[in-house]
Amino acid sequence: EIRSLHFEQEVGEGSYGKVWRARQPATGAVYAVKVVEVCVEQDDAVNVADTTAFKTMEQEINVLRECMNCPQIVQVLGVDMALGSFPTRLMVVMEMCDVGSVCDVLR
């Protein structure tokens, strides 16, 4: 259950949102959660699915899911959308990679 995760600290930020280190209290498991705020009004969209942020995240999720069997690619474990909040929040739960971004590893 994504909503039961405890967000511990921000570990990164991108064009559309932030990535948080989150822990599942019941198991102690640690995950990376990308949180993207989707605002229909700012994007002149009719609904959330028409926003640039939503379409970009949908594309990213689809690419990551296509690579599910590749051990070098971070796995998407779940997706949730907090409707009714403003702005709407799209949350993508992924494996936590404690070594940082690809750029960090290549340095």
UniProtKB/TrEMBL annotation:
The keyword Lipid metabolism does not apply. Keywords: ATP-binding, Nucleotide-binding. Pfam families: Pkinase (PF00069). It comes from the Eukaryota. GO terms for cellular component: cytoplasm. ATP binds at K34. GO terms for molecular function: ATP binding; protein serine/threonine kinase activity. InterPro entries: Kinase-like_dom_sf, Prot_kinase_dom, Protein_kinase_ATP_BS, Ser_Thr_kinase. Residues 5-107 form the Protein kinase domain. PANTHER family: MITOGEN-ACTIVATED KINASE KINASE KINASE, SPORULATION-SPECIFIC PROTEIN 1. This is Protein kinase domain-containing protein. It comes from Strombidinopsis acuminata.
